[in-house]
Write a structure and sequence with these properties.
Shape: globular
Number of domains: 2
Oligomer: single chain
CATH class of the largest domain: Alpha Beta
Largest sheet: 6 strands, parallel
Structural class: alpha/beta
Order of helices and strands: EHEHEHHEHEHHEHHEHEHHEHE
Number of helices: 13
Number of strands: 10
Distance between the termini: 19 Å
Strand content: 15-25%
Length: 267
């Protein structure tokens, strides 16, 4: 199976595209809704929660886990890959969402001016900045944390004037820096894609993060048959949450665009 982990619902935007690109596999989606949001927590706590979640997914039979959360990818992925995985599950793999987006942004940027928006934890970690500089040291990167967007999106305020005003304020410094490419460094943000594109303007290419991650995963599996061959097929999906299932099913269905029926678990 392929495990998809997020602190809550945002990862479902990524999972939607992964399932569309790779429909024949079996999946487990795990949302740690009880302890969400992760964005304002310390690196130590984010790492601890993520390790618990990944260990749980591996114990359920997942061969590969996707950290479908920018905060988790920025604060926990590298340590999990370099230290925890070799000691506990040396033949299994963990992937994140930051490198695929950084690779794509570096490739498509016309004038080497890239903007990044995300939670305070993601922006504060400078994970995108580091990864983008690895891709191209000449890139100029401009970042801005957008802490109000996640709660607004989860409240369903996608078409509210207030949301548009806040988003416009967040994007203003990036537009003033004349960015040509924008990375949405939070998996909630694709639900506001139309507003991001409208406010950013025609000169700015807003990357479709979930589709890019899905395309990169297809490529990864084609290059790693030793992993792909072990993954259970069959198309079944289980949705697991650490909090109440009613709220997860309601919000999850909006993020996924189809009906979600979840099960409650403890990590």
């Amino acid at each position: 199976m392929i495990g998809i982990f997020d602190s809550g619902f945002g990862g479902l935007t990524v999972f939607k595209e992964i399932k569309k690109a790779l429909p024949g596999y079996a999946y487990i989606y795990l949302g740690d809704s009880l302890r969400a949001p992760y964005g304002g927590r310390s690196q130590e706590v984010i790492y601890q929660f993520t390790e618990q979640a990944v260990d749980f997914l591996f114990s359920m039979g997942c061969e590969l886990v996707i950290l479908a959360c920018n905060t988790v990818s920025s604060e926990a992925l590298r340590k999990l890959q370099q230290e925890w995985l070799p000691a506990h599950y040396p033949v299994r793999r963990i992937l994140g969402v930051i490198r695929p987006l950084a690779e794509e942004a570096a490739k498509v940027s016309r004038f080497d001016h890239i903007g990044v928006v995300g939670t305070q934890a993601t922006i504060g970690s400078n994970a995108y900045k580091k990864e983008l500089k690895t891709q191209n040291s000449k890139l100029k990167i401009f970042q801005n944390a957008c802490p109000l967007l996640v709660p607004l999106i989860e409240e369903g305020w996608l078409d509210k004037t207030e949301t548009r005003m806040i988003l416009k304020k967040y994007l203003r410094p990036l537009k003033d820096s004349q960015i040509d490419t924008l990375i949405l460094g939070c998996t909630h943000y694709p639900l506001l894609m139309k507003e991001f594109k409208r406010i950013a303007g025609k000169r700015v290419q807003v990357l479709d993060a979930p589709k890019i991650v899905a395309i990169k995963l297809v490529d990864y599996l084609s290059r790693h048959p030793e992993i792909e061959s072990k993954i259970k097929k069959g198309g079944q999906t289980r949705y697991l949450t650490t909090n109440g299932t009613a709220k997860f099913d309601l919000l999850g269905s909006k993020f996924l665009g189809s009906q979600v029926k979840s099960e409650k678990v403890e990590l």
